Amino acid sequence: MTHDESIEDRILPLINETREFFIVAYNKKSHQLLLSIKRLEYIRAWKRIKQIQTEDVIINAIVININKGGLLVRIEGLKSFIPNSHITTQEKKIIKIDQIIECKLLVADERKNQLICSNKCALLAKFTDRFKIGNIVNGEITEIKKYGLFITIHGIPALLHISEIGYKHIDNINTKFALGNKIQVKIIHIDTKQGRLSVSTRDI
């Protein structure tokens, strides 16, 4: 099965083609079997998904729809969702239908037929040399709150808490920083599950 094939694309057999089927039911009176290719493909797809989840690897998904909440993608023939909060800023700028996007599984619930993925977590896993605790990196201020700054570092969001901005007390954070400003920070925590960083300007 290729990236852009859904399970539905694979269920129509050709004449004289030998296929495997899933036995759904058997009618004893008529001696007839109720068979399903779709069910078999579905079972196989979830088996591969569980293997991917166990191995915790980066996977390629194809974008099949874009909406306000995020991206609908296809993995192993199954539909999956990547929330906006788990898409890097770089990908948001260039994303389009039929594009391949790297991601990691966040939720894989076969009973609910639910798959949720993260592009940010894939980026953190892919560039481990870039995202290491103690690394000094440059970022851009994207949001200013009373409790700190939100910074984007290589497409990954980072929180610079006000308690980590030097050693001096800051009365008004808005007078000291502005949106779009570049800032040098040190990575002090990496949340690989949510694709987020915590940073500090202390001891740089």
Automatic annotation (TrEMBL):
<dbReference type="GO" id="GO:1990904">
    <property type="term" value="C:ribonucleoprotein complex"/>
</dbReference>
<dbReference type="InterPro" id="IPR012340">
    <property type="entry name" value="NA-bd_OB-fold"/>
</dbReference>
<feature type="domain" description="S1 motif">
    <location>
        <begin position="56"/>
        <end position="120"/>
    </location>
</feature>
<dbReference type="InterPro" id="IPR003029">
    <property type="entry name" value="S1_domain"/>
</dbReference>
<keyword id="KW-0934">Plastid</keyword>
<keyword id="KW-0687">Ribonucleoprotein</keyword>
<dbReference type="GO" id="GO:0003735">
    <property type="term" value="F:structural constituent of ribosome"/>
</dbReference>
<dbReference type="GO" id="GO:0006412">
    <property type="term" value="P:translation"/>
</dbReference>
<dbReference type="InterPro" id="IPR050437">
    <property type="entry name" value="Ribos_protein_bS1-like"/>
</dbReference>
<keyword id="KW-0689">Ribosomal protein</keyword>
<dbReference type="GO" id="GO:0003729">
    <property type="term" value="F:mRNA binding"/>
</dbReference>
<protein>
    <submittedName>
        <fullName>30S ribosomal protein S1</fullName>
    </submittedName>
</protein>
<dbReference type="GO" id="GO:0005840">
    <property type="term" value="C:ribosome"/>
</dbReference>
<keyword id="KW-0150">Chloroplast</keyword>
<comment type="similarity">
    <text>Belongs to the bacterial ribosomal protein bS1 family.</text>
</comment>
<dbReference type="Pfam" id="PF00575">
    <property type="entry name" value="S1"/>
</dbReference>
<feature type="domain" description="S1 motif">
    <location>
        <begin position="134"/>
        <end position="202"/>
    </location>
</feature>
